[in-house]
Design brief:
single chain; Rossmann fold; 2 domains; 7-stranded mixed beta sheet; 14 strands; elongated
């Protein structure tokens, strides 16, 4: 029995090493073959300004919108799982002037993984259009016959995508957004004026466009922890505070529900100290009253002492207050909901 177990473990280790080698070969192939990336964005009119702000920070691109969609090309690599507005990413391996050229180039591809080929859409001057069904299926069959490798329509190790791009064609590694962050909508504690999950995720991305070890984020008015959830889910070290004890209890419960680790405590942000890379401040308000100007100015002054970069959410006009505080306004946007809107400010403090 012991010998059988040893052989089983050894076999599993060999399979694991083989799989790791496969991933490394794929990564090397993609890095050497990549000619850039195509990203498809989808969002509502009410959040378009926020999505554009997010893309300016993540990719350095201001999207051109066609109704609810935008397609952008970039040399920068960004996981399609980060932005709540990203539908897919195509990592470009081949660029062809016409379809015949694409077939010729595809014949040189030799894939060690099983793959599935998907004709995605046509994009003309940034405007996405559907490809006719029979045309899509015919291209998928024909290109599949040219590419070296094994097709697996049900459980492929790799997905390839095709896009008709203006007057040419693109082919490459295709990854769709899985929207795993949407599970946070099912958090046990809710609050009527809290940021929505999608908005909170975009705000975290604006605050921390480049993920990396050691980045620290503070949310000094964290409420029930919507921003903290989105930060923690992306591996960002975050701390939260709130003056309301019930909000702190709710935020802790929400974090525990998804098994995230985050320090959350009761505190008035005007008494906080520390040095953080970035802050997200959703200035408090309710439906019956607004924050007194003096108290808001004190909170903004305290924020300046905590970080060099911050995203501030406000329902009141605060641009002049920010400038008087010596803040540099890096970017701004708006999130609307029927007749209610929030201003989003990205600022730096010197």
């Amino acid at each position: 029995m012991a010998g059988r177990l040893t052989n089983t473990v050894r076999g599993e280790q060999q399979e694991s090493l083989a799989y790791q080698g496969q991933l490394e070969r794929r990564e090397q192939q993609e890095q050497s073959a990549s000619l850039g990336y195509i990203y498809r964005l989808v969002c509502s009119d009410q959040e378009r300004s926020l999505c554009s702000m997010e893309m300016r920070q993540l990719l350095g691109i201001d999207p051109s919108w066609h109704e609810s969609s935008a397609v952008v090309e970039s040399e920068l690599e960004l996981s399609p799982q980060r932005s709540p507005y990203m539908k897919y990413r195509l990592q470009i391996w081949l660029k062809a002037n016409d379809y015949a050229d694409l077939l010729q180039q595809a014949a040189a591809l030799e894939l060690s993984e099983t793959y599935k080929l998907i004709a995605i859409e046509s994009v003309v001057n940034g405007e996405p259009r559907k490809l006719e069904y029979n045309k899509r299926r015919a291209m998928e069959r024909e290109l599949g016959m040219h590419i070296g490798g094994q097709v697996d329509l049900h459980h492929p190790q790799l997905q390839l995508g095709i896009i008709e791009w203006n007057e040419g064609w693109l082919l490459g590694s295709y990854e769709v957004h899985e929207a795993l962050w949407q599970q946070h909508d099912r958090k046990p504690r809710h609050y009527s004026t809290a940021l929505g999950t999608r908005v909170a995720r975009a705000i975290v991305n604006i605050a921390v466009p480049h993920l990396g070890a050691g980045i620290s984020l503070i949310d000094p008015c964290c409420g029930i922890g919507t921003v903290l959830l989105e930060a923690a889910s992306q591996g960002i070290y975050a701390k939260g505070y709130d003056l309301n004890p019930l909000a702190v209890v709710g935020a802790r419960e929400n974090m525990q529900a998804f098994h995230y680790q985050c320090d959350i405590a009761i505190a008035d942000m005007r008494g906080l100290t520390g040095d953080y890379d970035v802050a997200v401040l959703d200035l408090p308000y309710n439906h019956c009253s607004v924050l007194p100007a003096e108290e808001r100015q004190q909170m903004l002054a305290s924020l300046k002492q905590l970080c060099k970069r911050a995203v501030i959410v406000s329902v009141e006009p605060i641009k002049e207050e920010l400038l008087q505080l010596g803040a540099t306004i890096v970017d701004s946007g708006i999130v609307a909901k029927t007749h209610f809107k929030r201003d989003i400010w990205l600022v730096s403090f010197t």
